[in-house]
Amino acid sequence: MNSICTPKEALQKLERYCAYQERCHDEVVSKLYSLKMTSDEIDSIVVQLIENNFLNETRFACSFARGKHRIKNWGKIRITNELKLRNISSTNINIALKEISAEEYFQTFENLSERCWNSISENNILKKRKKFCDYLLRRGYESNLVYEKVKELEQNSDS
């Protein structure tokens, strides 16, 4: 098995790859395997990327959490699960979740839930409630928040 490029070329490619956007270790290792690097070469390149600050798991986790919350309106549960899938440590996950202020989190949840509730054109209140809850739970919001909000919205629409 011959590698596609030399370790030096691979390092340069990966520096560009990491400079373009934050990456997690798993993405970098996969990319290096796709370049047919050996395990030793991969270890060496990853160490160099970390030393030169191209690869930083904490920075990746924080950027990921902020972006997914602000752009995709994900809740903390979904963000946590997605970071775990990328083998990010619990310490880094906790640091990343602190990037989202309580006010911002609550405001996003309020806006998303109001928009969702108003967009569901379902006459059967039980079906509407289920669609609403499923949507917000899939987005990764805490069940207690979702169920409190659905009660509030139902009471407001009754009056």
What does this structure look like?
The chain is 75% helix and 0% strand. It has 9 helices and no strands. Helix 7 (102-119) packs across helix 9 (143-158). The longest helix has 18 residues, at 102-119. It is elongated. The termini are far apart.
Pick out its properties:
elongated, 0% strand, 159 residues, mainly alpha
Q: Could you give a quick summary of the protein structure above?
A:
This protein is mostly helical and 159 residues long. It has 9 helices and no strands. The radius of gyration is 21 Å and the shape is elongated.
Q: What is the radius of gyration computed over CA atoms, rounded to a whole number of angstroms? A: 21 Å
In angstroms, what separates the terminal alpha carbons?
Answer: 71 Å
Helix run count: 9
Helix content: over 70%
- Basic shape: elongated
Low-confidence stretches: none
Give me the secondary-structure category. Answer: mainly alpha
Determine the oligomeric state from the structure: single chain
Mean pLDDT: 93
**Total number of beta strands:** 0
